[in-house]
Amino acid sequence: MSNDPIIKADRISISYNQKNIIRDASFSVARNTFNVILGPNGSGKSTLFKVLLGLKKIDSGQIKLFGDDPKKGNKLIGYIPQSRDLEGINLRVSDFILLGYDGIKFGFRLSRSKSNHILKKVLNMVDGQYLMTKNINQLSGGELQKVYLAQSLVGSPDLLLLDEPLSNLDIKRENELLNLIAGLVQKNNLTVILITHDLNPIYDIVDKIIYIANKKLASGTKDQVLNSKILSELYDSKVEVIKDNQSHKLIIGIEDSGEHHV
Question: Fewest 10 Å CB contacts: which of 23, 61, 72, 140?
Answer without folding.
Answer: 72
